[in-house]
Amino acid sequence: MRNFLFSIHIAKNTFKDVFNSRIFPFFMAFCALLVYFSMVLGLMAVDEEKRVLLNFGLAMVELSSFSFILFLSSLAINKEMETKTIYMILARPVPRKNYILGKLIGLYMVSAFIVSSVSLIHISLLVIRGFPPDKAYFLAVLSSALKVALISSVALFSSISTSSSFSGIIISIMLWVFGNFSQEIKYLAEKAALLKKFFLLSFMYVFPNFHILNLTESVSPSATLYSFAYFFLYATILGLLSSIVFEKKEF
User: Fold this and answer.
1) Which H, E and C letters describe 211-241, residue by residue?
2) pLDDT interval class at 24 (50, 70, 90)
3) Which of 44, 149, 180, 193 lies deepest, with the highest CB count within 10 Å?
4) CA distance 118 to 28
5) Where are the domains of the chain?
6) Region 218-240 average pLDDT
């Protein structure tokens, strides 16, 4: 129980660090400008205003949240190593895996908060323009939250494995692009020769497939359940791998 409470303490501090960051207010202001820009594009589209406002706005919600959580996750541990904070934390008689667990819980909390905050800005603009969000909209927002939370696990694992925040960011961006174009890669694999097909399909199953997390395309409860199961399984594997690598590090 004490170890778990330690993880919760780490999670709370990770979440609070967002509000103490000098970047956070500028980030929220930038997000508001991006979402507002979607309304401007919608007005220019005339007959397609609703579609443009919805699609572009949702894209900005996901991309802006992804950008913020990517930098936060990649710097989560390396920053504490530079400031020597991690030495005081690890001096306590608790397993390192609980430290990683706390970081992941904190990053998931931040992911949910960021996506919710930016989407609320978007919703306010939709309501002002007379396009109240429907069920599909909230499913799209939930999908974005799952993707952003999963990429935070990827970024944390990458930064721990490479001991470099920059490398973690680059790897995470590559996997983000790959995961969002998984269906296109699957199509290419079906048309490719045997060796290339094996190579592409291997990437499909090893690296995150964000298409599975698109809840708007889930046509049945079982498909939705599969999406959540995929998220929890992949996040658990990344968490275990992060713990294993972190246990072997010397400080």
Assistant:
1) HHHCHHHCCCHHHHHHHHHHHHHHHHHHHHH
2) confident
3) 149
4) 7
5) 2-248
6) 88
